[in-house]
Amino acid sequence: MEDVSEPSEKVFMTELKIIGRTHHKNLVKLLGFCIEDNHFILVYELMKNGALSDFLFKEEVPPTWSQRTEMALGIARGLLYLHEGCDSPIIHCDIKPQNVLLDSKYNAKISDFGLSKLLQKDQTRTDTSARGTVGYLAPEWLKNAPITPKVDIFSFGAMLLEITCGRRHIELSRVEEESEDDEGDDLLLVNWVSGCVRSGRIDKLARSDPEVLNDIKRLERFVKVGLWCVHPDPTVRPSMKMVMQMVEGITEVEVPPMFYH
Predict the structure, then answer these.
(1) In the predicted model, what is the mean pLDDT of residues 229-249?
(2) What sequence ranges are listed for the domain Protein kinase (predicted)?
(3) Which of 37, 87, 94, 186 is catalytic?
(4) In the predicted model, what is the mean pLDDT of residues 116-127?
(5) Where is pLDDT greater, at 21 or 53?
(6) Which bin fits 112, alpha (ψ -120 to 50), beta or left (φ > 0)?
(7) Looking at residue 261, what is its pLDDT?
(8) Residues 221-255, buried b or exposed e (16+ Cβ, 10 A)?
């Protein structure tokens, strides 16, 4: 770890105790650590299949619908545990596909949780912007408003839409490819999704995939949950517990507010 805000063993150990007490099948497991001079090193389990971002967007053969839905559910379970299941609730602050890793069986696990307090002030914010992942940043970050678990809900919603639709939150190349689509601006994934929901054409999001078309109710449920999560007003976004109930189909998902035009 570089740029530790207070390079002291005491601060490092305090946060490690919190991280070390988190145990969930959808969180990357911390195996050990090392402190030597100014070096602060964390050792995690090996995640052989790399980052979810690579699996979703860079593989020649894209993941199947069943793989994508299982990953989405796994990430939701891991995030619910961070918010409500561990002794000291953890706000991740940087949920995105690059911070979800896949083990040898392609189980999705959240990484880099519990580290935000160790980093220099605003490092999470500036680093996220620098990496070009603005699409996952809740509006609160830009307004210097209080940071609550709802920032993770926004990020999860953006990622859920990507997983569900199999494309990035913004793709310049899509404009020409989908220029004949009447469902709105396809440059931004959230605009395209909300347009399809508004017009009752959820089937367009399936992109002619037979597996997805056969599971259209789940597709509709997932995209509606995603739209609820990315609402600009954090008070309107559901809690992670409610998100979990909705994606699992336990709670019915109402039509989200159509705030994109």
Answers:
(1) 96
(2) 1-261
(3) 94
(4) 47
(5) 53
(6) left
(7) 42
(8) bbbbbbbbbbbeebeebbebebbbbbbeeebebee
